[in-house]
Amino acid sequence: MSRRLDILVPFLNERESAVDFCAMAAALAAEARSRFGLEASFILIDDGSTDGGGALFEEHMSGHWSLVTLSRNFGKESAILAGLDHAQGDYVLLMDADLQHTAEVALDMIGRILADPDLDMVYAVRADRAESRSAGRYFAQWFYWLINMGQRYEIPANAGDFRVMTRRFAEAMRQLRDQRRFNKGLYAWTGFRQQRILYRPAERQGGESKWSRRKLIAFSLEGFTSFSVVPLRAVSLFGTGVALLGFLYGVKILLEVLFTGIAVPGYPSLMVAVLVLGGLNLALTGLVGEYVWSALSEAKNRPNYIVKTITGPQAAPAAQKKKAASARAIDG
Ligand code: UDP
Ligand code: MG
Are residues 11 and 153 in the same domain? Predict the structure, then answer.
């Protein structure tokens, strides 16, 4: 029996790329079969689209596919988990629906993971990011440096969700039910042997990126509070340092008054101390709040997503197989 490849495609309002994506998907499936003997099936995840794009995908997809429609927008991270929960293939490929992830790069990654049995994931890293000189890039560098500080595993910079993994990797990922999902961190946490390739994403086919600057910052914060205690430790350490300095300063003033009788002019030094410590207190309270919110989200233990419908020729393959088996039993 030929090996199976499940291709997970989360999408939100990608009406403009739907038709071209379906054409690309058919070509990709054909290539995967002829080059690697893989039987590809697509699992599309409609992450709460409001532009009617889901129907377009349904109309134009061919071959093996199913469409999992979520009850609302849960975010790409949760949509990918929904896809993983429905995947059964020997290999799982993640791809965007906006045609920024090309079939060519996908096939390259598939070839690599097939060639090396010790490899459980191949992921694509954006080459264009490393070259850019924008403020965003420096922010990203600093972010990865900070989040990776003192960790046992490294979250690689500029790597997204364009990845192919083995079944055992997918199963490991599926066990991680974090509510506030930060996939980049989860891939790294999972471990195994991973390989990176460099790629340049294509231009977006249509529509616009779902990532605003505000969303990116919120997402980074989410990454931090679910993967790093460094900010908390750093602030505690800084607080301790400041308190120590304050104490030494107090001793100095006391000695001065005792031995020279000079009263220190108070107002400016007081003001500095009040502002610095007050500000730090507020900042730290906010930071602790973030972690508490993160803990609260996990404690509620809600499902990561809700499925509205599953459609397509491959919908609920397990149930269909069972039906087919019982039909055969009756026939025989
Ligand atoms: N996406 C999604 N849910 C969301 C946001 C995005 O499923 O809440 C999908 C989107 O449709 C696309 C992929 O995730 O297929 C990547 O999103 P986008 O192109 O906006 O990100 P970028 O390429 O700009 O990083
Ligand atoms: Mg995109």
Answer: yes
Pocket of ligand 1 (CB under 6 A): 10-12, 14, 47, 73, 75-76, 79, 96-98, 100, 209-211
Name the domain count of the chain: 2
- Tell whether 46 and 97 lie within a shared domain: yes
Q: Which of 24, 76, 93, 105 to mutate for ligand 1's pocket (most ligand atoms within 8 Å of CB)? A: 76
Q: Tell me, yes or no, whether 142 and 242 share the same domain.
A: no
- Residue 218 domain-assigned? no
What spacing in Å lies between the alpha carbon of 205 and ligand 2's midpoint?
9
From residue 313, alpha-carbon distances to 58, 189, 250, 279 in Å are 10, 35, 76, 59
Domain limits for position 284 = 230-300
Q: Which residues surround ligand 2, an ion (CB under 5 A)?
A: 98, 100
Residue type, 128: D
Same domain membership, residue 134 and residue 35: yes
Looking at 109-118, 260-269, 304-313, which range is the least confident one? Answer: 260-269
**Quick one: 237 and 105 in the same domain?**
no
Least distant ligand from the CA of 14: 1
**Atom 13 of ligand 1 has which residue's CA nearest to it?**
96
In ligand 1, the atom with minimum distance to the C-alpha of 97 is 15
The alpha carbon of 216 and the centre of ligand 2 are apart by a number of angstroms equal to: 14
Q: Which atom of ligand 1 is nearest to the CA of 210?
A: 20
Tens of pLDDT, residues 130-188: 677 777 778 888 888 888 887 888 888 888 899 999 999 999 999 999 888 889 899 99
H helix intervals, 132-266: 135-147, 167-175, 183-190, 213-227, 230-260
The CATH number linked to 113 is 3.90.550.10
Question: Measured from the CA of 74, which atom of ligand 1 is nearest?
Answer: 8
Residues 74 and 105 in one domain: yes
Q: Name beta bridge partners: 92.
A: 6, 165
What's the count of helices (H) and strands (E) in the chain, helices before strands?
12, 8
Mark residue 312 as left, alpha or beta (left: phi above 0; alpha: psi -120 to 50; beta: remaining): left
